[in-house]
Fold this sequence. Notes:
Layout: H1 11-40, H2 50-53, H3 71-83, E1 86-90, H4 95-100, E2 103-106, E3 125-127, E4 133-138, E5 149-153, E6 158-162, H5 172-175, E7 180-182, E8 192-197, H6 200-203
Antiparallel strand pairs: 1-5, 2-4, 3-4, 5-6, 6-8, 7-8
Amino acid sequence: MHGRAIVGRKERPQLFCLVSAILAELQSIYPSINQSIRRMTQRYELTEFPEILKDTYWGQGPVTDPGASHPSVVQNYNDFVRAHSIVRALDRVPLYAETSARVYWTTDASEYSIFPATRMSGTSVRRNVDGVMEYACFMQMGHGIDHLQYFQDRSDNYVFITSPYRLRSDGTFLIEHGWERVPGLHIVGESSYMFKVLNLRRTGRPGDE
């Protein structure tokens, strides 16, 4: 028969061993390959500062979201980290820092005024030390804080970023209370807002931890 490779009976065991060895090798390296693929699907890998941004709300999102993964948003993060000497992202900050930024956490979702309680997905929600669900709000104004992220700069000061991209106002209430509008750090075409708080321990003044 022409054009066909014929494997004899003697060669079959050798071929079987070769295929088994290849499969075993693939199985041994698959976890690392899979891990690399998983990492490259997250937004933080698109930036110049993956070690800083890998644990942020934005950084852990998928690159398949064209609005949040837009090159301009990625560049805004690069510029933000450089301009403000950001050295790390934080999960929590001291109470005095949140109070200074007029951010507070409530267990009553009805106080979260930007969105109805039934539309809490994607907003700043966390569980407190007792495991109770809490929602981020803006002190005295009742406005919700969306996509809240905490950072620390080279001087150990705290930097808050909120990106309320579905906000129905122009952000005046945030600006009037000390927040600064910055290029969008959540989705293309929208603004974010930043608030800096001095680290009281660094400055030698007492702070409420």
